[in-house]
Amino acid sequence: MKKHTPGFSSITQRIVLVLVLIILPFNIISIIATVFSLQNARAQMVTSVDNLLELSMQQLSGRMNSMNDFFYNLGSVYPDFKLYREQGERTADLAMAESNLASYFNTTVQNDAFADVLFWQSGEYGRTYIGMSSLENEKCGRIFDCKETLKAWLETEEKDKYSTWGIAEVEGMTWLLKVYRSNDFYYGSFISLDELEHQLKKACSYAGLEIRFSELHPQTGKEPETAAERGRLFVEKESRTGNFRIQASLPSSEGYTNLTPLQILCIGFVFLYILLIPILIYLIHKMVLNPLKNISRAMEHLRGGEQDYRMEMQSGDAEEFTAIGEAFNSMADRIKELRIANYEKELERQRIELKNLQLQIRPHFLMNMFNLLYSFAQIENYQDIQKLALYLSEYFRYIFQSGKELQPFSQEISLIQKYLEIAEMRYPGCVEAVYEVDPESLETFVPPLLIHNFVENIFKHIVGYGKKIHLRVEAYTDGEETTFMIVDDGPGMPEEMADDINQGIFRRKEDERVHVGIENSYRRMKYFYGEKGSLTVVSQPGEGTCFTIVIPVKQPCTETGTFEKQPV
């Protein structure tokens, strides 16, 4: 039987390979397109946020420049401011200048969108003015509260650090601040970065946007090293007017929310192709591979000798597989019919062969008996002639009774005893027989004359030997086997002849076969028992011969007396 070689010899493996080779290129293209689409979406998101920050920074820079110009021109354009800043004593003119200045600051804050807060603080007079726009957001709360918070902060020394525009944290509020100083007189502007953050988030279309104002400078577009900030994209803009930066961050996945229909389609194809392979494999396995496996399994059963095994057709099978199944069942029926016919022919052939073997025995045996009768007639020994005639009658009755092919060994041993009695008539005092037979072996069925032929063979060589022969016939049953032994101390046989018999070889000599009776017994034993029956001989020239026959204990058919034989 040819063995399977390793590799893609299975039809399942080949189908999977074909599916993968067909779908994989499209899947790779879809994956590449998807990756490109996702990268493009992220790039668009970064570009959009970058543009938003750029616009906000430009607007913020414009406001800071406008405030710088405002304070630069304040002293030269507005004399009340110069007077209030430089006057040492508190006079009516100074009070008037202070009132005019407060009104001017308040009008500027309310009408111009440059600053959210304008202020001055006079250390000499201990007075602080804060002018505010209508700013009101979640962090600042009411304007009054915001004023009080800023006034308290201006009384600290922190304001001295902001000679340039910078970031100030004032009690949870973030401001862009610049402070001018003239002796103990401070003035400047606040721009609310909380309000700017609110406006940026409102203008941005991406959820999860976070805005930070700081002097830190992380690299644009790169993820920070901290685990808490992994998975986010960062964009920043550095101010050219002040010492600060605006940084925006948002989740990397946020870019996927604004994918185009084409990009979504590409991503859908990727998942479709991934799901398509196992689905196709399942469908092919169910509709193609399972029927093929059923066909292969049915062939294995039939090859294993299960002649009655038939394929069962399923309702969902394809027409082609149904036709194959029906053809297989029809072929199996035909094979069974042919095997039965061949078996019957073989049995008939074997029966004919057995009859021929039996016919070979009879002429051989009868020739010896007729020679013996002739010898008795020559000496007019009528009494022995009668005994011999009676023996021959029983012999033929044993051979032809009921047409049975097998007989109990009890009848065989009875026939052997009568034959030895006849032999004693022919060769008086030449043979002494001993029988060692257990009762169980007498019930063993044997082919007629199976043991008799070996006993008879002894007397073919008795003439001219000149010595008395001691013969022992043994029979015993052990388990499932019965052993027969025919032992004599006669002339024996050559070693080469004994070896041939042990090997089942019977040579011809001068166109006649040697040991016809032994060969006949051997062939009939193999016919009935096959390899379970054995014949061995041990012989030494001048010392004797021992034939051993072992056959299984089998129950014959009650009607025919024959063993049930298995099909060949």
Structure, described:
The protein is of the alpha+beta class. Among the domains are: 11-192, no CATH class; 341-552, Heat Shock Protein 90. It is 51% helix and 18% strand. The protein has twelve helices and 17 strands. The strands form five sheets. It has a five-stranded antiparallel sheet with strand order 2-1-5-4-3. Strand 16 and strand 17 (544-552) form a beta hairpin. The chain starts with 10 loop residues before the first helix and ends in a 16-residue tail after the last strand.
Number of helices: 12
Would you identify the regions where 5 or more consecutive residues have pLDDT less than 50?
A: 1-6, 218-228, 556-568
Find the count of extended strands (DSSP E, 2+ residues): 17
Corresponding CATH superfamily of the domain at 341-552: Histidine kinase-like ATPase, C-terminal domain
Query: Into which percent range does the helicity of residues fall?
Result: 40-55%
Main sheet characteristics: 5 strands, antiparallel
Q: What average pLDDT do the residues reach?
A: 76
For the record, the CATH class of the domain at 341-552 is Alpha Beta
How is the CATH topology of the domain at 341-552 named? Answer: Heat Shock Protein 90
Approximate shape: rod-shaped
